[in-house]
Specification:
The protein is built from 10 helices and 14 strands. The protein is an alpha/beta fold and 315 residues long. The chain has a single domain, classed as Metallo-beta-lactamase, Chain A, CATH 3.60.15.10. Bound molecules: zinc ion (ZN). Zinc ion (ZN) binds next to loops.
C-alpha cells in the first residue's frame, strides 16, 4: 500500500497526487458537495493505492464517491475508472473522448500512428506495453458530457462543463463559479509537465480558442492535472493570483512558437520526412525551451504532439 498524500486546496476540494511508472504524476481532485465527485482516476491502481487511503483519513471509502468526472480520455486520467465503477461510481466524459473509455486499442492505435510518422518504429512495442500496463479494463461511460452541461453535486456545488479541445478533442474544464475554481485537467499545458519536454497537444489548431475560452470565465484558482512548467519553474498544479494569467500567457506563447517552428521546418525541408521536419522544428526551439531528447531524440511528449502539428500544417 502506497502512502497517501492529500492536500486540501479549498474547504470542499482536495488534491490527490498519484505517481506512476516513468516519473509520471497525475493529480486527481476530490470535490465534496451533497454528492462527492472525483475528477479523473489517474492510472490503473491509482484509486485503490492512493485515493482509498486518502479517503479513509477523512472517514470515507471508494464507495463514497458518486461520480467520476474525467477531464479527458488519456491513460493517466481514466486508467483507474474501472476501480471506481466497481465501487459504484457513475462515469462521465466528454462525448468526443468517449471512444477512449470503450477501447484500449484506440490508445495503442493513436500512439503507433504518431510514432510511425516520426520514424520511431522501434519504440512502438514498448509504448504499447506501457499503455496496457496503465489502462484498466474498458468500462465506458454512463454520461456523455457536452459544453455547458452542469454537474450538480448539491445546492452549493455546481460544476459547469467547459469544452476546451486541443490536448485531446474531448478535453474539458470543470468550473465551480461560486468558488472561482477551474479544474483544468490537461487542457492548459504551459510548457508541458516535464522538464525538457513540450505541451501534449493532439489538436493544436483548436488550442488557442480553448485557452481564451477557459481564461474568459475569470477563475482565480486553477486545479491542474500535473505540475506544468513555466519559464521560472512549476506554475502548476494549483496556480492562484498572478500565476493564473501567467499560465494562459505562456501556454499561448509556447503554442505559437511551435506552430512557427513547424512552418519554418516545412520551408527549410520541402521534401523532408515527418521525422526530419519534426527534428528541425525541435532544433529551432531547443535553446529557447531547454528541450531534451527523452522521446526517441525528440523532446518529451514529442511523439504525441509533433505529428499533430505536422498534420495541421498539411502533412
Ligand atoms: Zn492528458
Amino acid at each position: 500500500m502506497a502512502t497517501a498524500s492529500f492536500e486540501r486546496v479549498h474547504d470542499r476540494v482536495y488534491r490527490v497526487p498519484v505517481p506512476f511508472e516513468g516519473g509520471g504524476l497525475t493529480n486527481m481532485y476530490l470535490v465534496r458537495g451533497a454528492k462527492t465527485a472525483i475528477i479523473d482516476t489517474a492510472v490503473l491502481g491509482g484509486p485503490t493505492d492512493y485515493l482509498a487511503p486518502a479517503l479513509a483519513s477523512i472517514g470515507l471509502g471508494l464507495g463514497s464517491v458518486d461520480y467520476v468526472l474525467n477531464t479527458h480520455g488519456h491513460m493517466d486520467h481514466l486508467g483507474g475508472n474501472a476501480e471506481m465503477k466497481d465501487a459504484g461510481a457513475e462515469i462521465s466524459i466528454h462525448k468526443a473522448d468517449v471512444e477512449r473509455s470503450t477501447s484500449n486499442q484506440s490508445h495503442l492505435d493513436r500512439a503507433r500512428a504518431g510514432m510511425e510518422m516520426l520514424g520511431l518504429h522501434e519504440r512502438v512495442a514498448a509504448r504499447e506495453a506501457q499503455l496496457l500496463r496503465l489502462l484498466g479494463r474498458e468500462v465506458g461511460c454512463d454520461r456523455e458530457l457536452d459544453d455547458g452541461d452542469i454537474v450538480d453535486l448539491g445546492p452549493d456545488v455546481k460544476l459547469t462543463v467547459i469544452h476546451t479541445p486541443g490536448h485531446t478533442p474531448g478535453s474539458v474544464c470543470y468550473y465551480w463559479e461560486a468558488a472561482g475554481i477551474l479544474i483544468t485537467g490537461d487542457s492548459i499545458q504551459v510548457r508541458g509537465s516535464r522538464v525538457g519536454g513540450m505541451p501534449v497537444l493532439e489538436d493544436p489548431s483548436s488550442y488557442p480558442a480553448s485557452l481564451a475560452k477557459a481564461e474568459s470565465v475569470g477563475a482565480t484558482t486553477l486545479c491542474m492535472g500535473h505540475a506544468f512548467k513555466g519559464p521560472d519553474g512549476d506554475l502548476g498544479p494549483v496556480p492562484t493570483g498572478a500565476n493564473v494569467a501567467a499560465v494562459y500567457r505562456e501556454s499561448l506563447a509556447v503554442h505559437e512558437s511551435w506552430a512557427d517552428a513547424i512552418r519554418q521546418a516545412f520551408s527549410d525541408l520541402p521534401n523532408g520526412s515527418g521525422g526530419e521536419r519534426g527534428f528541425r522544428a525541435a532544433e529551432l526551439l531547443r535553446e529557447k525551451y531547454n528541450l531534451g531528447d527523452a522521446d526517441g531524440g525528440f523532446p518529451g511528449s514529442g511523439s504525441m504532439t509533433i505529428p499533430a502539428y505536422l498534420r495541421a500544417a498539411g502533412m
